[in-house]
Design brief:
It contains 14 helices and no strands. It is an all-alpha fold. The protein is flat and about 85 Å long.
């Protein structure tokens, strides 16, 4: 078990370092940031002065080494657009993303697991056909299209929900409904399909038949014997979705002007503020990798046979 955890932790560190290299070098390929930082009438001396002040006059490898050294010491760079630390800006926006992600994750996971178990137990019934329709629509409707349609119907035509922004307190729930549906619709469909297929495979197994022959109540057979053994595939998807939601959905947050890390990433890319872009990507990657590391640990708990040789 210890060797398994050490290997997975080491792989996570390697993946995180790889992300830093990719985002650092790719942001430098987007163009000269000095063209945006300085006005049109700036002189070559102005370019030279600003370039030296931001360390852009050094070789690219040296810049990366300085960047990694600063990151390890808690300095993720300074935003030239917002005039604050890049990490501070990301941490300021992250609570909004975490709020929306948690709300979406709880609702969509509960619905996806529940519907998946129901359609598996009621195979070839009207419930099963209804679940297939939900899965088809959930995996075929683009999120940006769904968000715009929801906004047009419930905000513009009916006037029930606000079009954008983030409310405060309990009143903020109505601001989360449409973004949460847009984010979670695909999650419900995919999780339902995975749960259904995994449950159908387990329901036909010998130990489930033995449990029923022994006279165990059906609810106990489903929850104790079937769900735990069918949880590997849904758990894998849950880890991916949890990381995706917690890092912010760029499309959904942009459509609904939700002030989270996804919208921050769009604004940073548009202004070519590479310090913030690097901070957002590195922060997102860290959460995503951590979520998958937690899932791998849960694998070993659910199925002790899972080990690295």
């Amino acid at each position: 078990m210890q060797r398994y955890l050490i290997l997975r932790f080491g792989q996570s560190i390697v993946a995180l370092v790889g992300v830093t290299m990719l985002v650092f070098f790719l942001t430098r390929l987007s163009g000269n940031v000095l063209d945006l930082m300085l006005p049109i009438e700036a002189t070559p001396e102005d370019f030279e002065r600003v370039e030296k002040a931001w360390g852009l006059d050094k070789p690219i490898i040296a810049q990366y080494g300085i960047y990694m050294w600063n990151v390890l010491h808690g300095d993720w760079g300074q935003s030239w657009k917002w005039g604050a630390g890049a990490l501070d800006i990301v941490l300021e926006k992250f609570p909004a993303t975490a709020q929306l992600a948690t709300f979406t994750l709880i609702i969509s996971t509960t619905l996806g697991l529940s519907i998946g178990m129901l359609v598996a137990v009621k195979k070839d019934s009207p419930f099963d056909w209804g679940g297939k329709i939900i899965a088809l629509l959930g995996q075929s409707l683009p999120s940006f299209w769904l968000g715009i349609v929801l906004m047009w119907v419930f905000a513009v035509l009916l006037g029930w929900l606000p079009t954008s922004g983030r409310g405060e307190g309990l009143g903020g729930i109505k601001y989360m409904i449409m973004p949460a549906i847009t984010l979670g619709w695909f999650n419900v469909a995919a999780l339902m399909r995975l749960t259904r297929s995994a449950m159908l495979e387990v329901l036909d197994s010998e130990y489930v038949k033995l449990a029923r022959i022994k006279g165990l109540p059906e609810w106990k057979v489903i929850w104790k014997h079937c769900l735990r053994n069918a949880a590997i595939a849904p758990l894998t998807y849950f880890g991916l979705v949890a990381g995706f939601l917690m890092t912010g959905s760029v499309v959904t947050e942009t459509v609904f002007a939700w002030p989270g890390t996804g919208l921050l990433a769009v604004e940073a890319v548009q202004s070519r503020d590479y310090q913030v872009v690097q901070a957002v990507v590195l922060f997102m990657a860290g959460i995503f990798i951590f979520a998958n590391l937690v899932v791998d640990v849960l694998y070993a708990y659910l199925d002790p046979r899972i080990r690295y040789n």
